[in-house]
Amino acid sequence: MDLATPATLERTGLVFGPTWRSFTSTQGGLVVGHLLQAAADLAGAAPRAVTAHLLGGVATGVESVVTAAADRSGRTGSIRSGLTQDRVLLASAQTLTLARPATPGIEHWAPDELPQVADGEPVELPRDYVPVAEHIEVRALGATRPLGGGTEPRLHAWARIRGVELEPLVQLGLLLDALPPSLFAVRTVPAAMPTVELTAHLARPAPEPGAWVRIDQRTVWCDADVAIDDVELRAEDGALVARGRQTRRLLGP
């Protein structure tokens, strides 16, 4: 093993504006993106996997502090990062890093379909519930729509960040959580389903600012308390960007 003296990083002064809110708190994917970016910056290496727990709602308009510490450094690193407000830990993540960038991969069971951005239908998410939609342009694919009362808990769309330039991994975190919960596709009224855990595996470097990413997200199972969403992100050429899975807490009726 290549173990080095643990290093640390601390970033202060981070304040999320009101347009980054999803329902009552800052969008979870954006929070995870900041934890992921901090881990990569500390390690100076490419992140390949992250598991984050969102322990409480991150308020808008309140200073956040992001920290990162190396539990293991070297060719294979493990970085622990956290976000606090008023000294209360609200999100934590463990990120796996490798000393070299991702190499071209071999993907098994890749999808046959390769829809284009032009195939998508522009959709505006309801900003009364998700003000963060101001920063996300969505073009829906297929028949399902948020709150469409369909039969399949799946959302499929092209999405890109608009009007703001974010650090690459912050943008990736935002895109991993860009669509509403997949259960919204079978509902006609919204309900609170906050993300409490998100795990992602990165297949290639994060997309360039403003790049279109195809998001295919579906609920794979749920019970009375949680719903598990799988998500897949692909570039315009069909290449896999990342795969993720998140646990949503079911709080509404």
UniProtKB/TrEMBL annotation:
Residue ranges annotated for the Acyl-CoA thioesterase-like C-terminal domain, each copy included: 111-247
Top-level taxon: Bacteria
Signal peptide residue numbers: none
SUPFAM superfamilies linked to this entry: Thioesterase/thiol ester dehydrase-isomerase
Protein name, UniProt field: Thioesterase family protein
Family annotation (Pfam families): 4HBT_3C (PF20789)
Organism: Blastococcus saxobsidens
Xref: InterPro entries: ACOT8-like_C (IPR049450), Acyl-CoA_hotdog (IPR042171), HotDog_dom_sf (IPR029069)
